[in-house]
Amino acid sequence: MAEPTATISRPQRWDVPFDSQMDAAAVDRVLSIAPFSRIDLSNFPKSTPLRDILLNDASVRAFGKGEVIVREGDYGNSAFFIIQGSVKVALGKDAIPAALLGRRETHKKNFFETIGQLWSNPPHAEVRDTARYQAARDATAAARSGDTRSPIPGGSRSPLSRKDATKAGAVFLSDIPAVLKGGTATLSAGVFFGEIAALGRTPRTATIFADEPSELLEIRWQGLRELRLRAPEIKQFVDTNYRKYSLENHLRETEYFKDLSPEELKLVADQTRFETYGGFDWHTDYKKNRDTDPVERLRGEPVIAEQGQYANGLILIRAGFARLSQKYNHGERTASYLARGQMFGFKEIAHNWRTKESVSLRYTLRALGYVDVLVVPTSVVEQYVLPKIAAEALPKLIKTTEEADNPISPLEQLSGKLPTDFVEFLVDHRFINGRATMLIDLDRCTRCDDCVRACAAGHDNNPRFVRHGQQLGSYMVATACMHCLDPVCMIGCPTGAISRDATGGQVVINDTTCIGCSTCANSCPYNNIQMVEIRDARGEPLLDQEKKPVTKAAKCDLCLEQPAGPACVRACPHDALARLNIRDTDTLAAWLQR
To answer: Is the overall model pTM greater than 0.90, yes or no?
Structure first.
Protein backbone atom coordinates (compact mmCIF):
# COMPACT_ATOMS: atom_id res chain seq x y z
CA MET A 1 0.00 0.00 0.00
CA ALA A 2 1.45 3.35 -1.08
CA GLU A 3 2.25 5.88 1.59
CA PRO A 4 0.08 9.03 1.55
CA THR A 5 1.48 12.14 -0.09
CA ALA A 6 2.98 14.52 2.44
CA THR A 7 1.17 17.76 3.20
CA ILE A 8 2.61 20.93 4.72
CA SER A 9 1.20 24.31 5.68
CA ARG A 10 1.44 26.71 2.75
CA PRO A 11 3.95 29.46 3.63
CA GLN A 12 2.52 32.89 4.44
CA ARG A 13 4.00 36.37 4.03
CA TRP A 14 4.92 36.90 7.66
CA ASP A 15 5.68 33.32 8.75
CA VAL A 16 9.26 34.50 9.21
CA PRO A 17 9.20 38.20 10.23
CA PHE A 18 12.17 40.51 9.96
CA ASP A 19 12.65 40.27 13.72
CA SER A 20 10.79 37.61 15.68
CA GLN A 21 11.32 39.62 18.89
CA MET A 22 9.49 42.70 17.62
CA ASP A 23 6.30 42.94 19.70
CA ALA A 24 3.18 45.09 20.15
CA ALA A 25 4.83 47.26 22.82
CA ALA A 26 7.68 48.15 20.47
CA VAL A 27 5.18 48.98 17.71
CA ASP A 28 3.24 51.26 20.09
CA ARG A 29 6.43 53.06 20.94
CA VAL A 30 7.38 53.61 17.30
CA LEU A 31 3.90 54.96 16.55
CA SER A 32 4.32 57.53 19.33
CA ILE A 33 7.38 59.09 17.62
CA ALA A 34 7.23 61.62 14.77
CA PRO A 35 6.89 61.22 11.83
CA PHE A 36 5.17 57.86 12.49
CA SER A 37 2.76 59.51 14.93
CA ARG A 38 1.46 61.70 12.08
CA ILE A 39 0.54 58.81 9.77
CA ASP A 40 -3.13 58.34 8.92
CA LEU A 41 -3.76 54.66 9.68
CA SER A 42 -6.84 54.61 7.43
CA ASN A 43 -4.60 54.93 4.35
CA PHE A 44 -3.49 51.33 4.84
CA PRO A 45 -5.70 48.42 3.67
CA LYS A 46 -7.06 45.91 6.16
CA SER A 47 -4.89 43.21 4.58
CA THR A 48 -1.71 45.20 5.27
CA PRO A 49 -2.28 47.52 8.26
CA LEU A 50 0.50 49.78 9.44
CA ARG A 51 0.83 47.96 12.75
CA ASP A 52 1.45 44.65 10.98
CA ILE A 53 4.03 46.24 8.70
CA LEU A 54 5.99 47.54 11.69
CA LEU A 55 5.53 44.29 13.60
CA ASN A 56 6.79 42.09 10.76
CA ASP A 57 8.97 44.29 8.54
CA ALA A 58 10.83 46.28 11.20
CA SER A 59 13.14 45.79 14.16
CA VAL A 60 14.19 48.01 17.07
CA ARG A 61 17.95 47.57 17.44
CA ALA A 62 20.46 48.81 19.98
CA PHE A 63 24.04 49.68 19.02
CA GLY A 64 27.01 50.32 21.28
CA LYS A 65 29.41 53.22 20.79
CA GLY A 66 31.62 52.58 17.76
CA GLU A 67 29.53 49.67 16.50
CA VAL A 68 29.25 49.53 12.70
CA ILE A 69 25.64 49.79 11.45
CA VAL A 70 26.19 49.67 7.68
CA ARG A 71 29.37 49.26 5.69
CA GLU A 72 30.41 50.96 2.48
CA GLY A 73 30.09 48.59 -0.45
CA ASP A 74 27.65 46.18 1.20
CA TYR A 75 24.33 45.80 -0.57
CA GLY A 76 21.47 47.30 1.37
CA ASN A 77 18.04 45.77 1.83
CA SER A 78 16.86 47.97 4.69
CA ALA A 79 16.73 51.57 5.90
CA PHE A 80 17.21 53.00 9.41
CA PHE A 81 15.48 55.60 11.57
CA ILE A 82 17.35 56.94 14.62
CA ILE A 83 15.09 56.70 17.66
CA GLN A 84 17.64 57.92 20.17
CA GLY A 85 21.37 58.59 20.19
CA SER A 86 23.46 59.59 17.18
CA VAL A 87 25.53 58.01 14.43
CA LYS A 88 28.50 59.11 12.37
CA VAL A 89 28.92 58.82 8.61
CA ALA A 90 32.50 58.20 7.46
CA LEU A 91 33.00 60.58 4.53
CA GLY A 92 35.06 59.73 1.50
CA LYS A 93 35.42 56.52 -0.47
CA ASP A 94 37.16 53.73 1.47
CA ALA A 95 37.26 56.03 4.49
CA ILE A 96 37.74 53.02 6.78
CA PRO A 97 40.09 50.15 5.85
CA ALA A 98 38.08 47.08 4.80
CA ALA A 99 39.90 44.83 7.26
CA LEU A 100 38.59 46.90 10.16
CA LEU A 101 34.99 46.52 8.97
CA GLY A 102 34.93 42.80 9.71
CA ARG A 103 33.59 41.87 6.31
CA ARG A 104 32.23 38.36 6.48
CA GLU A 105 33.27 35.66 4.08
CA THR A 106 30.48 33.84 2.26
CA HIS A 107 30.49 30.17 3.28
CA LYS A 108 32.21 28.12 0.62
CA LYS A 109 32.05 24.36 0.45
CA ASN A 110 35.36 22.69 1.23
CA PHE A 111 37.01 20.11 -1.02
CA PHE A 112 35.26 17.15 0.56
CA GLU A 113 31.84 18.85 0.51
CA THR A 114 32.34 19.75 -3.14
CA ILE A 115 33.29 16.20 -4.12
CA GLY A 116 30.68 14.66 -1.78
CA GLN A 117 27.77 16.45 -3.44
CA LEU A 118 28.31 14.27 -6.52
CA TRP A 119 27.12 11.25 -4.49
CA SER A 120 24.87 12.91 -1.90
CA ASN A 121 22.57 14.78 -4.30
CA PRO A 122 19.03 13.40 -4.17
CA PRO A 123 17.85 11.28 -7.12
CA HIS A 124 14.59 13.25 -7.47
CA ALA A 125 13.93 16.80 -8.65
CA GLU A 126 13.51 19.72 -6.24
CA VAL A 127 13.70 17.72 -3.01
CA ARG A 128 13.36 19.76 0.20
CA ASP A 129 13.90 19.08 3.89
CA THR A 130 10.52 20.33 5.08
CA ALA A 131 11.51 20.18 8.75
CA ARG A 132 13.26 23.52 8.46
CA TYR A 133 10.04 25.28 7.39
CA GLN A 134 8.26 24.24 10.58
CA ALA A 135 11.38 24.99 12.63
CA ALA A 136 11.32 28.59 11.40
CA ARG A 137 7.66 28.98 12.42
CA ASP A 138 8.33 27.43 15.81
CA ALA A 139 11.28 29.74 16.42
CA THR A 140 9.13 32.79 15.66
CA ALA A 141 6.34 31.62 17.95
CA ALA A 142 8.79 30.88 20.77
CA ALA A 143 10.48 34.25 20.46
CA ARG A 144 7.20 36.15 20.58
CA SER A 145 5.70 34.16 23.40
CA GLY A 146 8.71 34.56 25.68
CA ASP A 147 9.85 37.67 27.49
CA THR A 148 13.16 38.20 25.72
CA ARG A 149 13.44 41.94 26.19
CA SER A 150 15.37 43.80 28.84
CA PRO A 151 13.72 46.57 30.85
CA ILE A 152 15.62 49.49 29.31
CA PRO A 153 13.71 52.72 28.51
CA GLY A 154 11.20 52.22 25.72
CA GLY A 155 11.21 48.43 25.83
CA SER A 156 13.91 47.80 23.24
CA ARG A 157 16.29 44.91 23.45
CA SER A 158 19.33 45.82 25.43
CA PRO A 159 22.60 45.97 23.55
CA LEU A 160 24.97 43.08 23.97
CA SER A 161 28.16 43.65 25.87
CA ARG A 162 31.04 44.40 23.53
CA LYS A 163 32.49 40.96 24.21
CA ASP A 164 29.20 39.17 23.45
CA ALA A 165 28.45 41.38 20.45
CA THR A 166 31.86 40.70 18.96
CA LYS A 167 31.25 36.97 19.33
CA ALA A 168 27.90 37.45 17.58
CA GLY A 169 29.56 39.10 14.59
CA ALA A 170 29.22 42.81 15.48
CA VAL A 171 32.12 45.07 14.53
CA PHE A 172 33.39 47.93 16.68
CA LEU A 173 35.77 50.72 15.71
CA SER A 174 37.73 50.99 18.93
CA ASP A 175 39.82 54.01 17.97
CA ILE A 176 37.57 55.93 15.62
CA PRO A 177 39.77 58.99 14.83
CA ALA A 178 42.77 56.77 14.12
CA VAL A 179 41.04 54.58 11.55
CA LEU A 180 39.28 57.31 9.60
CA LYS A 181 40.99 58.60 6.47
CA GLY A 182 38.56 61.49 6.04
CA GLY A 183 36.03 63.46 8.04
CA THR A 184 32.64 62.49 9.42
CA ALA A 185 29.10 63.81 9.48
CA THR A 186 26.80 63.33 12.45
CA LEU A 187 23.16 62.22 12.21
CA SER A 188 20.99 62.59 15.31
CA ALA A 189 17.64 61.27 16.53
CA GLY A 190 14.73 61.69 14.12
CA VAL A 191 16.72 61.03 10.93
CA PHE A 192 16.29 58.36 8.25
CA PHE A 193 19.28 56.95 6.38
CA GLY A 194 20.00 54.08 4.01
CA GLU A 195 16.74 54.40 2.07
CA ILE A 196 18.42 54.97 -1.32
CA ALA A 197 20.38 51.72 -1.12
CA ALA A 198 17.32 49.87 0.18
CA LEU A 199 14.85 51.07 -2.45
CA GLY A 200 17.35 51.19 -5.31
CA ARG A 201 18.84 47.79 -4.48
CA THR A 202 22.33 49.32 -4.66
CA PRO A 203 25.53 49.16 -2.55
CA ARG A 204 25.88 51.32 0.55
CA THR A 205 27.84 54.46 -0.30
CA ALA A 206 29.31 55.03 3.18
CA THR A 207 30.16 53.32 6.44
CA ILE A 208 27.96 54.45 9.35
CA PHE A 209 28.64 53.64 13.00
CA ALA A 210 27.14 54.54 16.37
CA ASP A 211 28.66 57.67 17.90
CA GLU A 212 27.19 56.76 21.30
CA PRO A 213 24.89 54.05 22.64
CA SER A 214 21.98 54.38 20.21
CA GLU A 215 18.65 52.86 19.36
CA LEU A 216 17.52 52.53 15.74
CA LEU A 217 14.46 51.28 13.92
CA GLU A 218 15.52 49.13 10.97
CA ILE A 219 12.90 48.64 8.24
CA ARG A 220 13.39 46.17 5.44
CA TRP A 221 12.65 47.65 2.07
CA GLN A 222 9.30 45.85 1.61
CA GLY A 223 7.94 47.74 4.61
CA LEU A 224 9.62 51.00 3.63
CA ARG A 225 8.03 50.84 0.20
CA GLU A 226 4.58 50.34 1.74
CA LEU A 227 5.19 53.34 4.00
CA ARG A 228 6.27 55.59 1.11
CA LEU A 229 3.32 54.43 -0.97
CA ARG A 230 0.60 54.91 1.64
CA ALA A 231 2.02 57.51 4.01
CA PRO A 232 2.93 60.77 2.21
CA GLU A 233 4.24 62.04 5.54
CA ILE A 234 7.01 59.44 5.44
CA LYS A 235 7.92 60.05 1.79
CA GLN A 236 8.19 63.80 2.35
CA PHE A 237 10.12 63.26 5.58
CA VAL A 238 12.63 60.91 3.90
CA ASP A 239 13.14 63.22 0.91
CA THR A 240 13.67 66.21 3.21
CA ASN A 241 16.17 64.17 5.22
CA TYR A 242 18.07 63.33 2.04
CA ARG A 243 18.38 66.96 1.00
CA LYS A 244 19.47 67.99 4.48
CA TYR A 245 21.94 65.21 5.28
CA SER A 246 22.94 63.24 2.19
CA LEU A 247 22.77 65.42 -0.92
CA GLU A 248 25.97 67.29 -0.14
CA ASN A 249 27.80 64.01 0.44
CA HIS A 250 26.46 62.70 -2.88
CA LEU A 251 27.75 65.78 -4.70
CA ARG A 252 31.09 65.65 -2.90
CA GLU A 253 31.65 62.14 -4.29
CA THR A 254 31.08 63.42 -7.85
CA GLU A 255 34.32 64.16 -9.69
CA TYR A 256 33.77 67.80 -10.61
CA PHE A 257 32.34 68.82 -7.22
CA LYS A 258 35.04 67.43 -4.94
CA ASP A 259 37.05 70.68 -4.73
CA LEU A 260 34.16 72.88 -3.62
CA SER A 261 34.25 74.31 -0.12
CA PRO A 262 31.56 73.22 2.35
CA GLU A 263 29.86 76.60 1.92
CA GLU A 264 29.87 76.33 -1.87
CA LEU A 265 28.67 72.75 -1.75
CA LYS A 266 25.72 73.81 0.39
CA LEU A 267 24.80 76.56 -2.06
CA VAL A 268 24.91 74.06 -4.93
CA ALA A 269 22.84 71.51 -2.99
CA ASP A 270 20.19 74.13 -2.14
CA GLN A 271 19.58 74.75 -5.85
CA THR A 272 19.73 71.14 -7.01
CA ARG A 273 16.44 69.60 -8.14
CA PHE A 274 15.20 66.01 -7.65
CA GLU A 275 13.48 64.53 -10.69
CA THR A 276 12.19 61.02 -11.47
CA TYR A 277 11.16 59.51 -14.80
CA GLY A 278 9.35 56.31 -15.61
CA GLY A 279 7.85 53.92 -13.11
CA PHE A 280 9.52 52.15 -10.20
CA ASP A 281 8.03 48.91 -11.55
CA TRP A 282 9.51 49.51 -15.02
CA HIS A 283 9.61 45.80 -15.77
CA THR A 284 5.83 45.71 -16.24
CA ASP A 285 5.86 48.06 -19.25
CA TYR A 286 9.01 46.46 -20.60
CA LYS A 287 7.52 42.97 -20.64
CA LYS A 288 4.34 44.32 -22.22
CA ASN A 289 6.13 46.21 -25.01
CA ARG A 290 9.34 44.26 -25.63
CA ASP A 291 7.99 42.62 -28.79
CA THR A 292 6.69 45.86 -30.31
CA ASP A 293 8.45 47.84 -33.04
CA PRO A 294 11.74 49.38 -31.76
CA VAL A 295 10.65 52.82 -32.97
CA GLU A 296 7.44 52.58 -30.94
CA ARG A 297 9.37 51.41 -27.87
CA LEU A 298 11.70 54.39 -28.20
CA ARG A 299 8.74 56.79 -28.33
CA GLY A 300 7.40 55.26 -25.13
CA GLU A 301 10.57 56.02 -23.17
CA PRO A 302 10.24 59.26 -21.16
CA VAL A 303 12.55 62.02 -22.43
CA ILE A 304 14.81 63.49 -19.76
CA ALA A 305 16.68 65.86 -22.10
CA GLU A 306 16.35 66.23 -25.87
CA GLN A 307 18.91 66.69 -28.63
CA GLY A 308 18.94 70.26 -29.94
CA GLN A 309 17.79 71.82 -26.67
CA TYR A 310 19.86 74.21 -24.58
CA ALA A 311 21.76 72.45 -21.81
CA ASN A 312 19.92 74.06 -18.90
CA GLY A 313 21.30 71.74 -16.24
CA LEU A 314 23.86 69.10 -15.42
CA ILE A 315 22.06 65.78 -14.98
CA LEU A 316 23.44 63.26 -12.47
CA ILE A 317 22.00 59.73 -12.61
CA ARG A 318 21.16 58.71 -9.04
CA ALA A 319 19.44 55.39 -9.84
CA GLY A 320 18.34 53.46 -12.92
CA PHE A 321 19.42 53.46 -16.57
CA ALA A 322 19.07 56.01 -19.37
CA ARG A 323 19.45 55.57 -23.14
CA LEU A 324 21.74 57.95 -25.02
CA SER A 325 20.56 58.28 -28.63
CA GLN A 326 21.07 60.58 -31.60
CA LYS A 327 19.09 61.44 -34.71
CA TYR A 328 20.11 59.39 -37.73
CA ASN A 329 18.42 59.69 -41.14
CA HIS A 330 14.68 59.62 -40.32
CA GLY A 331 15.03 57.96 -36.96
CA GLU A 332 17.41 57.57 -34.05
CA ARG A 333 20.10 55.13 -33.09
CA THR A 334 21.53 54.28 -29.71
CA ALA A 335 24.98 55.65 -28.90
CA SER A 336 25.37 54.36 -25.37
CA TYR A 337 23.63 54.25 -22.01
CA LEU A 338 24.17 55.91 -18.65
CA ALA A 339 23.79 54.34 -15.22
CA ARG A 340 24.09 55.31 -11.57
CA GLY A 341 26.99 57.69 -10.90
CA GLN A 342 27.26 59.01 -14.47
CA MET A 343 26.37 62.49 -15.76
CA PHE A 344 24.89 64.10 -18.86
CA GLY A 345 25.34 67.57 -20.37
CA PHE A 346 28.70 68.50 -18.84
CA LYS A 347 30.59 68.70 -22.17
CA GLU A 348 28.03 71.10 -23.65
CA ILE A 349 27.89 73.26 -20.51
CA ALA A 350 31.70 73.47 -20.33
CA HIS A 351 31.97 74.28 -24.07
CA ASN A 352 29.43 77.11 -23.85
CA TRP A 353 31.15 78.55 -20.77
CA ARG A 354 34.55 78.63 -22.49
CA THR A 355 33.53 79.97 -25.91
CA LYS A 356 31.08 82.32 -27.56
CA GLU A 357 30.06 79.59 -30.01
CA SER A 358 27.11 78.03 -28.19
CA VAL A 359 26.17 74.40 -28.82
CA SER A 360 22.99 72.58 -27.93
CA LEU A 361 22.69 69.07 -26.55
CA ARG A 362 24.09 66.53 -29.02
CA TYR A 363 22.13 63.57 -27.70
CA THR A 364 18.69 62.71 -26.39
CA LEU A 365 18.55 61.14 -22.92
CA ARG A 366 15.62 58.80 -22.27
CA ALA A 367 14.60 56.85 -19.20
CA LEU A 368 14.93 53.08 -19.55
CA GLY A 369 12.28 52.35 -16.95
CA TYR A 370 12.65 54.09 -13.61
CA VAL A 371 15.36 56.77 -13.47
CA ASP A 372 16.09 59.02 -10.49
CA VAL A 373 18.21 62.09 -11.31
CA LEU A 374 19.64 65.21 -9.74
CA VAL A 375 19.67 68.37 -11.87
CA VAL A 376 22.21 71.09 -11.09
CA PRO A 377 21.22 74.30 -12.97
CA THR A 378 23.70 75.44 -15.62
CA SER A 379 24.14 78.83 -13.96
CA VAL A 380 25.16 77.08 -10.73
CA VAL A 381 27.69 74.87 -12.55
CA GLU A 382 29.15 77.94 -14.28
CA GLN A 383 29.39 79.93 -11.06
CA TYR A 384 30.73 77.36 -8.61
CA VAL A 385 32.00 74.27 -10.42
CA LEU A 386 33.75 75.19 -13.68
CA PRO A 387 36.03 77.88 -12.20
CA LYS A 388 37.48 75.25 -9.83
CA ILE A 389 38.52 72.87 -12.63
CA ALA A 390 41.98 73.19 -14.18
CA ALA A 391 41.91 74.01 -17.91
CA GLU A 392 43.64 70.76 -18.84
CA ALA A 393 41.01 68.76 -16.91
CA LEU A 394 38.08 70.26 -18.80
CA PRO A 395 36.64 68.25 -21.71
CA LYS A 396 37.80 69.16 -25.21
CA LEU A 397 35.80 71.74 -27.12
CA ILE A 398 33.04 70.28 -29.29
CA LYS A 399 33.75 70.49 -33.04
CA THR A 400 30.31 71.34 -34.32
CA THR A 401 31.03 70.87 -38.04
CA GLU A 402 32.30 67.35 -37.48
CA GLU A 403 29.25 66.58 -35.36
CA ALA A 404 26.96 67.60 -38.21
CA ASP A 405 28.78 65.46 -40.76
CA ASN A 406 29.19 62.44 -38.49
CA PRO A 407 26.24 62.25 -36.04
CA ILE A 408 27.68 59.45 -33.93
CA SER A 409 31.42 59.11 -34.00
CA PRO A 410 32.71 55.55 -33.76
CA LEU A 411 34.86 56.76 -30.88
CA GLU A 412 31.69 57.42 -28.91
CA GLN A 413 30.31 53.91 -29.31
CA LEU A 414 31.14 53.00 -25.72
CA SER A 415 34.68 54.28 -26.44
CA GLY A 416 34.76 52.35 -29.72
CA LYS A 417 34.71 48.98 -28.03
CA LEU A 418 31.38 47.58 -29.24
CA PRO A 419 29.64 47.76 -32.63
CA THR A 420 26.44 49.77 -32.93
CA ASP A 421 24.16 46.78 -33.50
CA PHE A 422 25.52 45.05 -30.41
CA VAL A 423 25.00 48.18 -28.28
CA GLU A 424 21.40 48.45 -29.46
CA PHE A 425 20.85 44.73 -28.82
CA LEU A 426 22.06 45.12 -25.23
CA VAL A 427 20.04 48.28 -24.60
CA ASP A 428 16.81 47.21 -26.29
CA HIS A 429 16.68 43.96 -24.32
CA ARG A 430 17.88 45.68 -21.11
CA PHE A 431 20.88 43.34 -20.86
CA ILE A 432 22.85 46.40 -19.72
CA ASN A 433 21.33 45.53 -16.35
CA GLY A 434 23.43 42.37 -16.08
CA ARG A 435 26.32 42.07 -13.63
CA ALA A 436 26.89 38.38 -14.44
CA THR A 437 25.20 37.82 -17.79
CA MET A 438 25.65 34.37 -19.37
CA LEU A 439 26.94 34.90 -22.91
CA ILE A 440 27.44 31.92 -25.23
CA ASP A 441 29.47 31.98 -28.44
CA LEU A 442 27.40 29.70 -30.67
CA ASP A 443 30.27 29.26 -33.13
CA ARG A 444 32.26 27.54 -30.39
CA CYS A 445 29.40 25.82 -28.55
CA THR A 446 28.98 22.15 -29.54
CA ARG A 447 25.72 21.69 -27.55
CA CYS A 448 27.39 19.06 -25.37
CA ASP A 449 25.42 20.26 -22.30
CA ASP A 450 28.43 19.93 -19.98
CA CYS A 451 27.50 23.37 -18.58
CA VAL A 452 23.97 22.20 -17.70
CA ARG A 453 25.20 19.01 -16.07
CA ALA A 454 27.78 20.94 -14.01
CA CYS A 455 25.08 23.35 -12.84
CA ALA A 456 22.86 20.43 -11.81
CA ALA A 457 25.68 18.75 -9.88
CA GLY A 458 26.13 21.86 -7.76
CA HIS A 459 22.40 22.33 -7.06
CA ASP A 460 21.03 19.00 -5.82
CA ASN A 461 20.69 17.69 -9.39
CA ASN A 462 18.56 20.70 -10.42
CA PRO A 463 20.00 22.87 -13.21
CA ARG A 464 19.34 26.55 -12.61
CA PHE A 465 19.50 27.91 -16.15
CA VAL A 466 18.24 27.11 -19.65
CA ARG A 467 20.64 27.02 -22.59
CA HIS A 468 18.67 29.18 -24.97
CA GLY A 469 17.74 32.86 -25.15
CA GLN A 470 17.93 36.04 -27.21
CA GLN A 471 20.45 35.96 -30.06
CA LEU A 472 22.39 38.45 -32.15
CA GLY A 473 24.37 36.75 -34.86
CA SER A 474 26.46 34.01 -33.31
CA TYR A 475 26.06 35.30 -29.74
CA MET A 476 23.32 34.30 -27.32
CA VAL A 477 22.30 35.62 -23.91
CA ALA A 478 21.18 32.48 -22.10
CA THR A 479 18.14 32.28 -19.82
CA ALA A 480 20.10 32.52 -16.58
CA CYS A 481 19.92 35.01 -13.72
CA MET A 482 22.13 38.01 -14.56
CA HIS A 483 22.36 39.20 -10.92
CA CYS A 484 21.27 42.60 -12.15
CA LEU A 485 22.50 46.00 -11.20
CA ASP A 486 18.81 46.83 -10.68
CA PRO A 487 17.19 43.50 -9.71
CA VAL A 488 13.51 44.34 -10.18
CA CYS A 489 12.65 40.75 -9.21
CA MET A 490 13.01 41.98 -5.63
CA ILE A 491 10.19 44.48 -6.10
CA GLY A 492 7.07 43.22 -4.39
CA CYS A 493 8.58 40.15 -2.72
CA PRO A 494 6.39 40.17 0.40
CA THR A 495 8.81 38.34 2.68
CA GLY A 496 12.22 39.57 1.53
CA ALA A 497 13.04 36.01 0.47
CA ILE A 498 14.83 37.29 -2.62
CA SER A 499 17.69 39.63 -1.77
CA ARG A 500 21.31 40.46 -2.46
CA ASP A 501 24.22 38.78 -0.80
CA ALA A 502 25.64 41.57 1.37
CA THR A 503 29.20 41.38 0.07
CA GLY A 504 29.19 39.83 -3.39
CA GLY A 505 25.92 41.30 -4.61
CA GLN A 506 24.60 37.99 -5.96
CA VAL A 507 20.80 37.87 -6.04
CA VAL A 508 19.78 34.86 -3.97
CA ILE A 509 16.55 33.26 -2.77
CA ASN A 510 15.97 32.08 0.80
CA ASP A 511 14.05 28.85 0.26
CA THR A 512 12.76 28.88 3.85
CA THR A 513 11.03 32.28 3.61
CA CYS A 514 9.88 31.97 -0.02
CA ILE A 515 6.09 31.55 -0.01
CA GLY A 516 5.78 30.61 -3.69
CA CYS A 517 3.74 33.68 -4.63
CA SER A 518 5.47 33.97 -8.07
CA THR A 519 5.92 37.73 -7.74
CA CYS A 520 9.65 37.55 -8.46
CA ALA A 521 9.18 35.21 -11.44
CA ASN A 522 6.51 37.46 -12.90
CA SER A 523 8.62 40.57 -12.30
CA CYS A 524 11.87 39.32 -13.84
CA PRO A 525 12.04 41.01 -17.28
CA TYR A 526 14.16 38.16 -18.63
CA ASN A 527 12.12 35.14 -17.45
CA ASN A 528 15.14 33.91 -15.52
CA ILE A 529 13.23 32.70 -12.43
CA GLN A 530 11.24 29.46 -12.48
CA MET A 531 8.55 28.31 -10.08
CA VAL A 532 9.12 24.66 -9.18
CA GLU A 533 6.94 22.14 -7.38
CA ILE A 534 8.89 20.86 -4.39
CA ARG A 535 9.07 17.20 -3.33
CA ASP A 536 9.91 15.05 -0.36
CA ALA A 537 12.80 12.57 -0.18
CA ARG A 538 10.70 9.93 -1.98
CA GLY A 539 10.14 12.26 -4.92
CA GLU A 540 6.46 12.79 -4.06
CA PRO A 541 5.09 16.33 -4.55
CA LEU A 542 4.42 18.26 -1.35
CA LEU A 543 0.84 19.51 -1.04
CA ASP A 544 -0.76 22.13 1.15
CA GLN A 545 -3.90 21.62 3.27
CA GLU A 546 -6.04 22.16 0.15
CA LYS A 547 -4.12 19.41 -1.67
CA LYS A 548 -2.51 21.91 -4.06
CA PRO A 549 1.20 21.59 -4.96
CA VAL A 550 3.55 23.84 -2.95
CA THR A 551 5.90 25.81 -5.21
CA LYS A 552 9.12 27.70 -4.61
CA ALA A 553 11.10 30.17 -6.71
CA ALA A 554 14.36 28.83 -8.14
CA LYS A 555 17.14 30.42 -10.17
CA CYS A 556 20.89 30.64 -10.67
CA ASP A 557 22.74 31.74 -7.52
CA LEU A 558 26.09 32.11 -9.34
CA CYS A 559 27.33 29.06 -7.41
CA LEU A 560 27.65 31.21 -4.30
CA GLU A 561 28.78 28.27 -2.16
CA GLN A 562 31.10 26.67 -4.71
CA PRO A 563 34.79 27.42 -4.02
CA ALA A 564 35.73 27.87 -7.68
CA GLY A 565 32.77 30.01 -8.78
CA PRO A 566 30.20 29.35 -11.52
CA ALA A 567 30.31 25.67 -12.48
CA CYS A 568 28.86 26.35 -15.94
CA VAL A 569 31.90 28.40 -16.95
CA ARG A 570 34.41 25.91 -15.55
CA ALA A 571 32.72 22.98 -17.26
CA CYS A 572 32.68 24.38 -20.82
CA PRO A 573 35.38 22.46 -22.75
CA HIS A 574 35.46 24.94 -25.64
CA ASP A 575 35.59 28.30 -23.83
CA ALA A 576 32.24 29.13 -25.41
CA LEU A 577 30.57 30.44 -22.25
CA ALA A 578 31.28 33.40 -19.97
CA ARG A 579 29.58 35.27 -17.12
CA LEU A 580 30.22 38.95 -17.80
CA ASN A 581 29.37 42.34 -16.34
CA ILE A 582 27.90 44.14 -19.35
CA ARG A 583 29.09 47.50 -18.03
CA ASP A 584 32.69 46.26 -18.08
CA THR A 585 33.06 47.03 -21.76
CA ASP A 586 36.81 46.29 -21.81
CA THR A 587 36.27 42.69 -20.71
CA LEU A 588 33.17 42.30 -22.87
CA ALA A 589 34.94 43.60 -25.99
CA ALA A 590 37.97 41.39 -25.32
CA TRP A 591 35.73 38.32 -25.03
CA LEU A 592 33.88 39.15 -28.26
CA GLN A 593 37.14 39.71 -30.14
CA ARG A 594 38.95 36.53 -29.04
So the answer is: no
